[in-house]
Nitrate reductase
Amino acid sequence: MDTRSTCPYCGVGCGVVIESDGARITGVRGDPEHPANFGRLCSKGATLHLTAAPEITRQARLLQPMQRLQRDADPVPLAWDGALNLAADRIAGVVQAHGADAVGVYVSGQLLTEDYFVFNKLVRGLLGSNQIDSNSRLCMSSAVAGYKATLGADAPPACYDDLAHANTVFIAGSNTAWAHPIMMRRLEDAKRANPAQKWIVADPRRTETAAVADLHLPLLPGTDVALFHGLLHLLLWEGLTDAAFIAAHTTGFDALRDRVREFTPKHVAALCGLPEADVVQAARWFGANTPTLSLYCQGLNQSSHGTDKNAALINLHLATGQIGKPGAAPFSLTGQPNAMGGREVGAMANLLPGHRSLASDADRAELAALWGVPPVPAAPGRTAVEMFEAAADGAVKLLWIACTNPAQSLPDQAMVRRALARAEFVIVQEAFADTATARRADLLLPAATWGEKEGTVTNSERRISRVRAAVPPAGEARPDWQIARDVGRRLEARLDPRRADGASLFAFESAEQVWHEHRATTVGRDLDIGGLNWAMLDAAPRQWPLPAGAADGLARLYGDGRFPTPDGRARFAAPAWQDVAQPRDARFPVALTTGRLRDQWHGMSRTGLLGRLNDHAPAPALAMHPQELDRRGWRAGDLVRVRSRHGEAVLPVQPSATVRPAQASVPMHWGEEFVGGQTADGRPLTGVNALASPARCPQSKQPELKHVAVRVEPA
Ligand code: SF4
């Protein structure tokens, strides 16, 4: 039996066909009709069925609700009704004793749009707080803030077809070949069809993507804004800007022109550590070998100046008029499979459903009217790291964590462990039983996962795809939206008993019903899908916007030169260049950056279960330039202790010319459950993010996971 669905890993959003006998998943293949991948799958997508094998399910899945009666005790099973009542009792107790702001709900870009929607309605509609955030904060929040600051809306303007139309592809802070492999296949197709297409890659590391580029700019970590300002300086100097577009469709260019005046090629080459001629070449291709498409990801986003980096790159497109045309746009690559859907339903501390803004009284009133609840407060909730810091400080008393593993993925792991220890109650809703966060939970709620649940996701090009169940959930697992609904109904009985069943905020019996309510929140907004219905989505994935009366979604945005700002013009930003939050110094002389491996996904709770995927890189290693090893007398495989101001990790070192001297790189995937548990001298090891700094972008609040200063010593 074949069931069409979507890959649950990255934001490319490939279509899959799940093969099953109705009870067990037996295979997977790419969906030849899905416009994201046309039948192709990468190594992760092609092995999805193996992660649903019975032995993996028995070994790794959370199969029934469990309660930990003491923090250091083994959890014991309990029935669903008791688990849901316990969750509701503890949440209601905290709300009544300390107020709704003492409950922190931390969700995930892995959730489906419908899951996200119900969680958000529970926090905003029922609890009346804004204390919900998503692990998308670690992934895309700088892209969101960059789009909104310049183009006026959180909307990637391009589509995948633009890869084939571009003559120059500028890839900044993205190892597309490993992080978005099917997108890379499409780029390779484009280059085969158009050998004149130029690829420029700006990345401190010589990644697999950089290695096949026409021009690699190995800029020093954190110097992206300086590079982008330098490119604009050159575009102006060489007459490659579009004065007519700037005059007709933008504001703020004079301030930006003043800002970039000092970013001469010589200055930029020195700041960024690049040959001057390469900066000049990049500017000429960007401005003259058009159309130009920029692809960018975590190298820009995971930065203490992530919003500035995004805005400075978008400036280049506005200044050259390279937007709104086939092959021309700034195009953020979404990290997680449904970071877009989470933003659409507003399940982040500073957002509201339908791309509404907390800062707008009208938007808050509109949402209140849609749901029949009082308006939420205007003050944003705590963002991801802030939520855990507040728990560590005692202000957040209860954490409800769904489909994510903050005890591995957040920066400043020592703080996260304090937060999980100090919280009065920790609820973890998970598909997998033994994540680092699950080990610290008081209550474990088993969630259905890929192949077992219904709903929708939105990929990088704004395309909404159906996710479908091929088999029933394993054990007693339930879909995330149903768990949130059932806790919500119980909370209504405890906190708002006037809501009889008929007036419940959670009168949903299917994912389709949740989606219909989500759709209603989009009408009249930039992401309007009022013209889309479930039957259309069942037939084929669709891009937003697709308002009532439209025959199909819009492939690319801003073709008419109008932007969703009050005056219809895009806004140039003129940020100053600022260095990384922790520059190298005498005590911490090495710049450490992190990145993805080809065959692993995030914290490896799924991909780490398969030997076939582990074979690519069975253990984490610290990559350092061969000169650094020679100078210290180290050999490949020697254990080294990597210390930052926040923590330490012991890792084998590997020589690699992909990084410069005084730099190092480590894969992001490993936490305590995969690296062993203690250092050679018996101290606990908390994974690679033990090293990461909590420094974050002041606008997006996205942490600087891409850079921290470290020192490296013999272990
Ligand atoms: Fe899945 Fe991304 Fe690979 Fe496509 S490219 S198969 S969405 S992991």
Notes: The pocket of iron/sulfur cluster is lined by residues 7, 9-10, 12-14, 37, 41-42, 44-45, 180-182 (CB under 6 Å). Confidence is low (pLDDT under 50) at residues 674-681. The first strand starts at residue 2 and ends at 6.
